[in-house]
Amino acid sequence: MLTKLKRIIGLLLIVPTVAIASVSEYQLDNGLKLIVKEDHRAPVVVSQVWYKVGSSYEHNGITGISHVLEHMMFKGTENLGPNEFSQIIAANGGRENAFTGRDYTAYFQTLEKDRLEVSFRLEAERMRKLVIDETELLKEREVVAEERRMRTEDNPHALVREAFNATAFVNSPYHHPVIGWMSDINHYEASDLRQWYQKWYAPNNATVVIVGDVEPEAVYALAKQYFGPLKPETTAQVKPQIEVEQRGKRTVEVKAPAELPYMMMGWKVPVVKTAEKGQDWEPYALEMLAGILDGGQSARFSRDLVRGNEIAASVGAGYGLFSRLADMFLVVGTPTKGHSIADLHQAVMAQITKLQTQLVSENELKRIKAQVVANAVYERDSVFYQAMQIGMLETIGLDWRLTDQYVENIQAVTAEQVQAVANKYFKDEGLTVAELTPMPLDGKKPASAAGGRHGH
Amino acid sequence: MGIRTIVLLLSLLVSVSVQASPKIEHWQTENGARVYFVPAPELAMLDITVAFDAGAARDGKQSGLALLTNAMLNEGAAGLDTDQIAIAFEDVGAQFGNSSQRDMAILSLRTLTDKAAFSPALEMFTNVLSKPDFPKASYQRIQKQMLIGLQAEKQSPSAVSSRAFYSNLYGKHPYASMPAGDEESVLQLSLDELKAFYKQYYVAKNAVIVLVGAVDVVEAKSIAERLALGLPAGEPAKKLPKVIPLSKGKTVVIEHPSSQTHIVMGQAGMSRGDVDYFALYVGNHILGGSGLVSQLSNEVREKRGLSYSVYSYFRPMRELGPYRFGLQTRNDQAKEALEVMTNTLNLFSKNGPTEAELVAAKQNITGGFALRLDSNSKIADYLAMIGFYGLPLDYLESFKSKVNAVTVEQIKDAYSRRVHADKMITVLVGGKTE
Questions:
Q1: Which end of chain A has the smaller Cβ count within 10 Å, N or C?
Q2: pLDDT tens digits for A171-222?
Q3: Contact between B101 and B56 (Cβ < 8 Å)
Q4: Alpha carbon of A304 to those of A300, A314, A350, A358, A441: distances in Å?
Q5: Contact at 8 Å (CB) between B217 and B135?
Q6: For residues A183 and A166, what is the distance between their CA atoms, to the nearest angstrom?
Q7: What is the per-residue pLDDT across A378-434, written as a single tens digit (0 to 9) for each?
Q8: Nearest by Cα to B34 from B389, B328, B355, B367
Q9: Is A377 exposed, middle or buried (0-12, 13-18, 19+ CB in 10 A)?
Q10: Threshold 0.80, pTM exceeds
Q11: Three-state SS at A316
Q12: What does each C-alpha distance from A378 to A214, A400, B375 come to in angstroms?
């Protein structure tokens, strides 16, 4: 859930002895972007198609529609029956799936390298020729409702996260969950889905990312063959929906059947895309700050709160510097027995105050930088992850080369900059706190009869 | 439009030809630890896994003992405290890991092979492996954390269903208890028991060392010797008792204030190296092991929209691991979903797959075989499995041909002998189902 250092977007090459990493970039006449990264370690290829659409493109009433459309993309096209896409990929030894986020919807297959054509043929087909069938949609609404029950309704931490985002963000679309509100899930119409598909699924709104044991020019030729003939679309301009300024601390309580208390704290912070001019170091300083607090077992949260005073059973810091819109710096945690949420809150605030008043040590900075450098090598063990980095950056409107600059930018961060962002952003004016108040697990009616109230 | 090619790095790699399966080097250290090594020179990193036959199956009556012992190793070693150990790894960007399941207890290290990083990381890893101090303050803290973890389990219908499944399926067998233990047993554990457990099981003859990364075989031999050096030779763990399959079916219903009912159903399945492994593995792939194209997914999700996730899998272990089925659905649909799942299993057991389904499954498994071995970490996991369970060194090489040899008749035969829908444990955790 949280972006920790090990999951951070990183760079490929620090150690000069590593393999050649060559990336080729192409654009078809219809606007489709193709990025090919060679990785010849194993005879496999990962193929990902990224669309610039996700829950942050949605408005109230149709929340989650990007996600349900992602499900419907497996349910048939003009030339493929329901589920046939998956059957063909399976018969070719492939693994496939898709994921929807706030800022993107992406589809992927992993295949042995000589099967890439299968991926392109099928992805090109569903890029423009999806068929939204009423009956299939009704079934898929049920599947998504079950997914929401599993992920959110019956998961107290997810309920807190949802309440937290809905409180912290007033008009930013990060207000609503990626999977959508249950009421919206139960009321999607086929026409809603068709419009959404028409609006966003087009070659000029897509980036195809290929990583693996391939030859870039051959991939380009294959892309021209299958995606080339597709007509571009006049895609909609998404409105800016810049979050209104927060003018004071916000708190929200969630009561749910649970055994343990839990809290989320978050401060409004900039990300790379929204950093002020001349202040583009700030997201990297925030990233460093997250590392100082929670970058491993030796970091301050583990050392002081889990081990030192044993106030936290678990505590984590999370910040992602790559998103389309301004986001939050998060701290989440559960107190140990004998300690309250208030104790944990206070202990976290003491850590923040320390960051605001004292410079972090050179040793700590060096340790986080060493981890970032090493992770940049480790990340290359996964072709999938390498493709993710490229696709995600491109889709939120950043250059994929930022993965190269990431390590440099982190290495440039100074103790003074960490202190500066701690003072500038960790203020009550931008703070939201959500708390879980555990309710008894037994002797209660099923918590979410609401789930059962849907239907048609 | 134009083409731009960006070459990020100009240093050229000595190209290594990629084989279908990696060639596994295998030897023993002086004191009897078994070593499995695959060179992977492309990335300047090394993955080390040390697996001991010291999982929860060795807990005896002290449920949670194996896990807590494993969790204590990096809390203090060679006179250094938790902070100093963590700093030593993280200063050089090394990633230390420990975990303990039913069969295996694992320590792992991922490090750069650059000498400045590698030497201190390996030294600290060796300390943690062979010179743990078991500091009392850490023991008390981790014990408390385990108790909180057990409390957290209670708020998750999925965790509640898993626990009930194992305890009902395995009864008095060591696989019955959860690696995390239970409140009563965790409270009763003592530091002396942990030390005794470590002394008995964390020994060379009970260990498998796996190395995958940018070192050559000479270096790998020296690394393995260094790792094992501090371990006494000891003895391999004793054989576990056989699992006795259930003689009749049983349904367990646990009320939970959730909007969905989590259903877990199953029986004793198979062991690693099982004679029916390939027939059962390929059979289950068709029934419920192949994601969106499996029979179960088709019946439960595609046709009826009853569940987001529905699966079945064998977890082969030292002794018979579980054959497990599961789904989650709105409480008022639980009965219907369970019926669909059971009927699908019954039909499959009776009729087996069609020839077309078998062909598709083989295509899927063999056509994507390279995907199982496309990273150092995946290869390391396979080596640990091959080494720990004593599978043949050509396990990976012969995998495809063994899958291709499976027939419809063999699947039907194996299912009729080994899978009994009427003798399964069924656990339902959720709200009122009517």
A1: C
A2: 999 999 999 999 999 999 999 999 999 999 999 999 999 999 999 999 999 9
A3: yes
A4: 6, 12, 11, 16, 32
A5: no
A6: 15
A7: 999 999 999 999 999 999 999 999 988 999 999 999 999 999 999 999 999 999 999
A8: B389
A9: buried
A10: yes
A11: strand
A12: 21, 19, 10
With beta carbons less than 8 A apart as the criterion, state whether B393 and B22 touch.
Answer: no
Confidence band (pLDDT; 50, 70, 90) for B384?
very high
Q: Is A338 on the interface with B (CB under 8 A)?
A: no
Both tokens assigned to A11: 């760079």
Q: Are residues B162 and B264 in contact, defined by beta-carbon separation less than 8 angstroms?
A: yes
Centre a 10 Å sphere on the Cβ of residue B340 and count the other Cβ atoms it contains: 21
For residue A145 the two structure tokens come to: 């409702």
Catalytic residue among A38, A70, A282, A364: A70
Specify the long-range contacts of residues A309-315, CB closer than 8 Å, at least 24 apart. A309/A347, A310/A336, A310/B141, A310/B144, A311/A335, A311/A336, A311/A339, A311/A343, A311/A344, A311/A347, A312/A336, A312/A344, A312/A347, A313/A260, A313/A337, A313/B144, A313/B145, A313/B148, A315/A344, A315/A348
Instruction: Output the CA–CA distances (angstroms, integers) from residue A284 to A14, A181, A427, in the order listed.
Output: 18, 33, 19
Per the DSSP assignment, residues forming a β-bridge with A23 are A37, B6
Rounded to two decimals, the ipTM of the complex is 0.93
Of B44, B301, B363, the CB nearest to A377: B44
CB contact under 8 A, A446 and B368: no
Q: Decide if A96 is catalytic.
A: no
Partner residue facing A146 (CB), from B11, B87, B260: B260
C-beta of residue A439 within 8 angstroms of C-beta of residue A255:
yes
Q: Quote the CA–CA distance of B292 and B400 in Å, as a whole number.
A: 22
B202 φ, ψ (degrees, to nearest 5): -90, 70
CB contact under 8 A, A149 and B374: no
Chain A residues inside the 8 Å CB shell of B256: 441
* A residues 20..49 contacting B (CB < 8 A): 20-29, 40-44
Q: Report the sign of the C-alpha dihedral through residues B121, B126, B131, B136, in that order.
A: positive
* Angle in degrees, 0-180, between the axes of helices B115-130 and B82-91, rounded to the nearest 10: 150
Query: Radius of gyration of chain B from Cα atoms?
Result: 24
| Summary mean pLDDT of chain A | 92
